[in-house]
Amino acid sequence: MRGKLVVGNWKMHGGLRQNDALFADLRNGWAPAEGRRLAVCVPFPYLWQAQAALSGSAIAWGAQNISEHATGAFTGEVSAAMVAEFGCRYVIVGHSERRTLFAESDAVVAAKAAAAMAAGLTPIVCVGESLQEREAGSTEAVVSRQLDAVVARVGRRIAETVLAYEPVWAIGTGLTASPDQAQAVHALLRARLHSVDAGAADAPVLYGGSVKADNARALFACPDVDGGLVGGASLKAGEFLEIASA
Ligand code: PEP
Fold it and tell me: pLDDT value at position 174?
């Protein structure tokens, strides 16, 4: 379903007391509107707290990663089914920090997307090029390869995912893709989704990378940008709510 979806990615930030305040501010401040959805993806230990604080509200919650395995001897890992037990709707897979810092390959990301769907979660599949790749003119090849790996695994069910285009050079750097740069890649991703299945072209494609209150409106006005995946600015309720309403 298209419309506007804004998802906060808290990364490894938070604490019980500050989360309480942030959840309360979001819950009190979010005025749901037709076609607008809001969600937060929090660290694993806080999923119970998100569930307690946000149940019954119009704000969904999710995790930032899962194992590609369903169960077994994988010390330290967390399965999709475990996350689903805490009422999660979403899980981020293939965030560039996972790809680069934790060496997650396209195949692993695809397996995580499939594991999420098997547990009834909606994966938010991140794709994006590094600065070096953009400068080498390989943005299209990189994001296509990353998307195709997931399609190869889940097929037409790609229609049930959310995609997030996150140029790596824009994440946490204060640099943002211009609306034209974002739109160009989003249009490409949408065309690729359409080539899998006409219905898949309606999967939301979010933009992520230093989205702030002062640039969200211009980015979200692009015809193929269906909202945002927001890191740093999702930790401040006021700014995050402004972005969600942009
Ligand atoms: C992210 O974490 O996905 C992200 C886009 O971060 P930031 O908004 O801080 O660039």
Answer: 87
Residue 85: active-site member:
no
pLDDT tens digits along 68-84: 999 999 999 999 999 99
129 is catalytic: no
Write the burial class of residue 242 (CB in 10 Å: 0-12 exposed, 13-18 middle, 19+ buried): middle
List, for residues 174-232, the tens digit of each pLDDT value. 889 999 999 999 999 999 999 999 989 999 999 999 999 999 999 999 999 999 999 99
**Which of 101, 230, 234, 239 has the most ligand 1 atoms within 8 A of CB, as the residue to mutate?**
230
pTM for this predicted structure: 0.97
**Residue 1's pLDDT band (boundaries 50, 70, 90)?**
low
Is the Cβ–Cβ distance between 108 and 95 less than 8 Å?
no
Among protein residues, the one with the nearest Cα to ligand 1's atom 1 is 231
Helix ranges restricted to H, 30-138: 47-54, 80-84, 96-101, 106-118, 131-135
Q: In angstroms, what is the span from residue 10 Cα to ligand 1's centroid?
A: 9
Q: Answer whether 95's CB lies under 8 Å from 68's CB.
A: no
**Which tokens in the block code for residue 95?**
């965030």
Report pLDDT for 172: 87
Q: Nearest C-alpha to atom 8 of ligand 1 is from which residue? A: 231
Ligand 1 centroid – CA 17 distance (Å): 23
CA distance 204 to 187: 12
Is the Cβ atom of 94 under 6 angstroms away from ligand 1?
A: no
DSSP letter string, 107-141: HHHHHHHHHHHHTT-EEEEEE---HHHHHTT-HHH
